[in-house]
Predict the 3D structure of the following.
Amino acid sequence: MIPAPFDYVAPSTVDEAVRALADAGEDAKVLAGGQSLLPVLRMRLAAPTTVVDLGKIGELTGVRDEGDAVVIGAMTTHYDVQRDPLVHDHALLLARATDTVADPQVRHRGTFGGSLAHADPAGDLLAPALALDAEMVIQGTGGRRTVSAAEFFQDFFTTSLAPEDILVEVRVPKHTGWAAHYEKFNRVAQAWSMVAVAATVRAEGGSIAEARIGLTNMASIPVRATAVEQALVGRPADAETIRAAAEHAADGTSPTVDGNADVEYRQHLAKVLTGRAVEAAMVG
Amino acid sequence: MRITVTVDGTGYTDDVEPRTLLVHHLREKLGKTGTVVGCDTSNCGACTVHLNGQSVKSCSVLAVQADGGEVNTVEGLARDGQLHPVQQAFRDNHALQCGFCTPGMIMQSIDLLADNPNPDEEAVREGLEGNLCRCTGYQNIVRAVRDAAGHMRPGAGPAAEQVADGERTTTGARGDV
Amino acid sequence: MTAMAEPEVGRARVRKEDERLIAGRTRWTDNITLPGMVHMALLRSPTAHARISAIDTSAAKEMPGVIAVYTGDDLDPGGEVGMPNAWPITPDQKTPRRPMLAQGTVNFAGEAVAAVIARSSAEAEDALAEIDVDYEDLPVVLGLDNAVADGAPLVHEDLGTNTSAEWIFDSAEAGSGGDVQQAISSSEVVVTRRFRQQRLVPAFMEPRSVVVDPTAPQLTMWSATQVPHILKTMVAMTLGLPEHQVRVIAPDVGGGFGGKLAVTPEECAAVVVAQKLGKPVKWTESRSETMVAAHHGRDQMQDITISASRDGTVTGLKVDLLADMGAYLGIVGGGVPVLGAFMFNAIYKIPAYRFSCTTVLTNTTLTDAYRGAGRPEATFGIERIMDELAAELGMDPMALREKNWIAHDEFPYTTVSTLTYDSGNYEAATAKAMQLFDYDGLRREQAERRERGDKVQLGIGISTFTEMCGLAPSRVLGSLDYGAGGWEHAAIRMLPTGKVEVVTGASPHGQGHETAWSQIVADQLGVGFDDIEILHGDTQSSHKGLDTYGSRSLTVGGIAVVKAAEKVIAKARTVAAHLMEAAEEDLEFADGTFTVRGTDTSTAIQDVALAVFAAHNLPDGVEPTLDSEAVFDPENFSFPHGTHLCATEVDTETGRVRLRSYVCVDDIGNVINPLIVEGQMHGGLAQGIAQALYEEAVYDEFGTLTSGTFADYLVPSAMDLPSFTTDRTETAATSNPLGVKGVGEAGTIASTPAVVNAVVDAVRHRGVQDIEMPLSPMRVWHAVHQGNAAAGTEGEAGGGLGSIDPAHGGAQ
């Protein structure tokens, strides 16, 4: 299968990219790593008139330390995120989740920002971004703005990005020394998450001082399991605490139904996997 | 659009449509039919090549994205009639039957060994999760990759030296083979 | 000559084929480019059942690079061409005509409706979108029970029914056993189950491709096919071409598994188009096309009743099948479930047996041969119900099998379904497997886990299978109304320099014939392994053959090679005797050398070949050639068997199944190349396990295949399969001179019930008697938590492309 014809632009700065998108209008698509976009184009499920490739914009790549946050360029590949020492030290949850994204070849090309902007509810980086209170730095025709993860994800494959907007970088508040685990459940290794749980916790003197839990594919957007977080914090870091807290994982969720999981099963999985994620995080 | 790509050591300059996938450019324009297409959704990995020293699925890269880059395919692995240790190991361990997935499997195996020169069984299986094979049940592929690892470790013989050679961009790009 | 060379047969030779395959120096059909070649793309129906009221191709014809656009009526104005069904299973079978491109109606989603021919494949694909087809929807017939229900809408109105045929075997009528109804009604224990064999996609890795060159009087067709010889004859018959002006070449073929045992509308359309245009035409399908347009496999509903006495002696077996054929009958078609008729009784001595099969048409992709073809379904049915019977009786499932199987000293044994098993030793294979598996140890662990209510439960599954393969004795095929024979051809050419060319009618697509045949010929003729070249897959060099399927290559084609070699030696003996001035009967032949008995006078077969080439000094009346050919028609099937044992861990919290260990001991008779045999076992196991746990072709209520990509149809990766422990016993087949049995399908046939039995065994204490395949986590979890009630749920596509929503943004 071959994509329908399109015009191709490869700007070298973000300004140029924004301008190119504005010029091209509604039928433009942004190409980051292309690992989701190219199959879509090949299947002709999308036929943009213009493709704006961000691959030549050097400023979009890399991870840097900005005081209380780690800043990850949108075009940083999964492969580089997985191996970045800043990410490991200050946002371990992200590294753990990135390890589970697709396969090695896809991780070589696919990008952190691309995954977030694509906003697939089964994508594995959305829930960690939400759990870590990440902020999206977006540039559009009106300049730069910052949007919280909670505002950024709006619906299936829908974010607060306007057609001419570029996701430039993601500011992840430092969670230095936090334990983390991403518990993914799928039918085969290649398949998307049926449900997954992103858990990161900070223990202090045998009890849980802070906890952040995000759920993948329990709604059209990533979900924060606040009831679980509340049930964990301030309690002893033991199996009973975790078991009791995990019971709240599906509180208030209304997950979608597909061939792999009905609502009852998905909610059940959310609870089981939450328990396992928190436990695995604690064990390290 | 005019692009220049170095493939298996030879530079090629061509006009391509922006929509041309790298794998189609390789197969149809450059005659590099050793790399094949097995699916539409980037699941099968049969089209795996190395782009600038990393394994990629060439069905999910536009040819224009490879402009100025270096591509290595299964056709460029053997040197002076000597097989790459991974190729040799695939043969020795009967790691292929129909052989359609083999180019991609070999290219991905080389990449995984570059990242992890001495993988255990689990690591090999994980490293190949993006490559489907319908014939072998994977057992002999896993065996072959681990066998090749033994032959590629420094000091393991001429084959390893050959692979560690800086000119071997397909395997030596990250310098940790 | 020095000491005897080590025999080639039995050696773990690395394969000759690999040299080109590991280097990318392959010749897949899609690699072929010919001068002036144009590309064909096919528009496929998005709807499962509709009347075509209009097709407007005018805009498509105006697209850049487009050379022609054809509809079904353009290619076949008379509506006379239909794809062949070679196995009408009953005289009154209903066989709908399957056109090259749909004519009048479309009958499954994915059926080709129009063809665009363009300068490039991209331009051909571009123009598809410009073809305007008006579809008037017709009621969609899906599901076996629905299709055969009274008043069901019809797939093909002109046939008047959705039932294609009903085929029955009854042991009382055949005189091979008793009356099954009587057996059931008079037995102490009766167990009845309904099992579903879900629909599968063969999923060969190389998508299908065909190139047709019409520019010489003899048309040449390259095709990614398992069956070049059948294709040549059937294309000629189907399209009315003179057979001698058709040459078919199967170059390197990337897997088949039955999925390329076909004569396809695409191949025929490419021929007609190439002839119309006078230009070479290439068609290569995308994976998405493969999924909907290449035939599927399995898809049966099995109602099985088994009866026994309290002590576990089986008294009767009754099987009623519904088999979903899809919208048309493929080349084997209804023959696939009929093959299963002979295998439900398996390795057991069953006194009364009745099998009935109804083949049913639905608005889905057609089903046909897929690895095992009829035998996996039968093996699943019997091995599953043996476990259910054991549970009902409170017996160990292996003890129940042992009580009923054919003992090693009872061979040859004629079964209730009238086959005569030549050889086997179920006791030996089972003993070895049980020991490798640590059956008793795992049973103890299972009890302990149950005792302590472990959230991970252990189950043990058994499959003691046999199968019939090496298709097939021609007279048997004739008695089953199959349209052809089951022989195979081979020829050997002794070249002047002593090198050897072997021509085979078998058509490998991954099996390793070039290596195995070389080993056989090396031993037969006493020439070097590397001095032999195997020619195959081109009807010009290999003019006669019946190709590769049904685990037949070695047991039929390999024997033909042996027979041809014997003829070469016989011819060479005459010449050697003449050259050495000795009597023929005084010559011994060993290691490639004729020796006058009791002397040191000898001559090598290569020297004889050179002398024959020169032809200066031959006996009177002897033709100057050693070349020989043979056609071998087997007298019987071969009956590999084995004992497969599977241990699964079932996570009762999530329903996830993990394969803890898999041990199989197979008996495939003598082995030519253990490396190749082991590879066949591994791959076969992977496919059988995938049926149990992962794969299913799922249709939605509109007849759209929702598992239509590799993102949804879950072919397992290396991460999803365990390492297997494979071993063998060797009970030589008595039906052929090499003592070999087929191996290509054994692993697939045996493994599926072993896995399902293991999962059910793990959770039987929770009230579970069955879980529908594939055993997805949700199905297992529901079964565990609600007993049997929810074990069968809606079909499920896999993970999905996930990422795709054209209506929304998120392109980055």
Remarks:
- The interface with chain B takes residues 1-8, 10, 31, 34-35, 38-39, 41-43, 51, 53, 55, 79, 102-106, 108-109, 189-190 of chain A (CB under 8 Å).
- Chain A has twelve helices and 14 strands.
- The longest strand of chain A covers residues 195-204.
